[in-house]
Amino acid sequence: MTPRPKALVTGASGGIGAALALAFAERGYDLVLLARRSDRLEEVAAGTARFGASVETLVADLSTPGGLAGAAERAAAGDMDLLISNAGAAGYAPLRDVSAAEVDALWRLNSTAPVTLAHAVLPSLLAKGGGSIVTIASLLAFSSGVTAAALPARTLYVAAKSATVAFTRTLATELVGTGVQATVVCPGQVATEWSGGANRNRPDAMSAEDVATATAVAVARGEAVCVPGLSGPEALDRLQQAERALLTQGSQSSLAHRYAKSL
Ligand SMILES: NC(=O)c1ccc[n+]([C@@H]2O[C@H](COP(=O)([O-])OP(=O)(O)OC[C@H]3O[C@@H](n4cnc5c(N)ncnc54)[C@H](OP(=O)(O)O)[C@@H]3O)[C@@H](O)[C@H]2O)c1
């Protein structure tokens, strides 16, 4: 009998992470479920029983150096086929109102953790010649230049999620030909406990289950960027074209004329 593949899912005690745990259990994965709330992890683990998944729970706070180090050690153990870095916190506030300790914790959780865990799991995936590294980012990663009253004060969150998008897209190109793939998922608003459950009453919010389905499809297809609400690939294609144009046009030996005159 072929052994079941194994997935490490962070932030699996609720919301998108719990839906991902169920979705991948249904698709034949055993699971390592990580979060801070052990009772909620046990509930999610119990929910996957009908799919015959064997589940290990790991209580860790990824916003702390010790918690992240323990999670990285588990990711590096050599038995993982899929890493889903989903744990995150909004911390929406103007940067001036965020304490230095909060900056450190939020950055570690939202940005450092996905990189550290990917780095930890990668050697064993490369040795096997297969597997996936998935990170749940956010559509807000593309909102840095957007001023809109409806958007929250989000500098730190957007910076962390954009870093995640750039990390995964670049990693995906680095991994071409290895059998290992990287996928970043960028949902819009999702009806979870996120940000005090603010999206739960929004008619335009997607369900966590739909985000999990999109993630599973994107992993199966080997997509580098998955936007669950985006119908066609045109917007992502245009983004890539714009990046290429910026790289080529901006990489010149001479100073651009518009900067040549001193003020
Ligand atoms: N909901 C949205 O509108 C939305 C939109 C775009 C992207 N996202 C992204 O989707 C991901 C999941 O969000 P969600 O909507 O499912 O939110 P959620 O319902 O609040 O779930 C967040 C998950 O992360 C875990 N977590 C939070 N802080 C943690 C820490 N310090 N260490 C370990 N685990 C921690 C939580 O578990 P514990 O509290 O038990 O630790 C929980 O399982 C996040 O990365 C978020 O950025 C969400």
TrEMBL record:
<dbReference type="InterPro" id="IPR036291">
    <property type="entry name" value="NAD(P)-bd_dom_sf"/>
</dbReference>
<keyword id="KW-0560">Oxidoreductase</keyword>
<comment type="similarity">
    <text>Belongs to the short-chain dehydrogenases/reductases (SDR) family.</text>
</comment>
<dbReference type="GO" id="GO:0016491">
    <property type="term" value="F:oxidoreductase activity"/>
</dbReference>
<dbReference type="Pfam" id="PF00106">
    <property type="entry name" value="adh_short"/>
</dbReference>
<dbReference type="InterPro" id="IPR002347">
    <property type="entry name" value="SDR_fam"/>
</dbReference>
<dbReference type="InterPro" id="IPR020904">
    <property type="entry name" value="Sc_DH/Rdtase_CS"/>
</dbReference>
<protein>
    <submittedName>
        <fullName>SDR family NAD(P)-dependent oxidoreductase</fullName>
    </submittedName>
</protein>
<dbReference type="GO" id="GO:0016020">
    <property type="term" value="C:membrane"/>
</dbReference>
